[in-house]
Amino acid sequence: MNQKNTQIVATFYKFVSLPDFAEKQDPLLAYCLDQGIKGTILLAQEGINGTIAGSRPAIDAVLSYLRSDPRLQDLEHKESTADNPPFERMKVRLKKEIVTLGLPEVDPNEQVGTYVTPQEWNELISDPEVTVIDTRNDYEVHIGTFKGAQNPQTNSFRDFPEYVRQNLDPSKQKKVAMFCTGGIRCEKASSFMLSQGFAEVYHLKGGILKYLEEVPPEDSLWEGECFVFDERIAVGHGLEPGSHDLCFCCGHPLSEEDKASAKYEEGISCPWCFDGLTEEKRVRQQEKWRQLQLKMLRVDTAS
């Protein structure tokens, strides 16, 4: 890893009442820009959610700045590293929700499910009376999930409430355990399910990433890899980089098997988008891929 260009990537979220969230936008943006930070921070009445990248001193400074607000003094964050800056600019956006369920009335600040640590998770999901649900989207579940977990087959987190209404019943599913990548979606999903009358709702504290970080492979009930929203694409146990790439055309994670398919053409198509690719779109995609290769060649030549 090139130490000179190494970036610290920090992700964080907190559900907390921020009635003055709009007033925080400009000062926060200005402070991040002063520190040379890039990434995105979302602010809403219900809290804060962000992923930012920069030097070690800059990340520490921004996190300290955020925690100087008494309401955010216990803000937790996770870190990874990137060889090069993973973001092109800094954005601080105002939103109705920091993770979009489409039901602003569902508020984790009012009620949330029971947190379960990675060390307690195996025992919980091994209980036959517990319904285990993966709250992530279908393309994420496709490359890895917990053994025996239900896949709601959603395209967006907004689809989750309808999945619950159509497939689950509080009188039948007495105990429900949910998980997601880092924990934020389960905060809102568990709050929603409690509002629908489900009595015992549990969720994995710190999400899949914390589980993979803390639970050794020999004790793990995780199968496959975990999709992540950064340059690593997917990770395995110990948060080691996985084997997946992304389709340049549709953004779907690709396994080695996918890349061996006759429908895969680097930069142009993959098994997940090939059938929907018109000739016109194929030509456009070929040109986009050609332009990217030229840009990368110019960068390599300049360095």
TrEMBL record:
The keyword Oxidoreductase applies. It comes from the Bacteria. Residues 126-220 form the Rhodanese domain. Pfam families: Rhodanese, UPF0176_N. InterPro entries: Rhodanese-like_dom, Rhodanese-like_dom_sf, TrhO, TRHO_N. Keywords: Oxidoreductase, tRNA processing. It catalyses: uridine(34) in tRNA + AH2 + O2 = 5-hydroxyuridine(34) in tRNA + A + H2O. Its EC number is 1.14.-.-. It is an enzyme of class 1 (oxidoreductase). Catalyzes oxygen-dependent 5-hydroxyuridine (ho5U) modification at position 34 in tRNAs. Belongs to the TrhO family. This is tRNA uridine(34) hydroxylase. The gene is trhO.
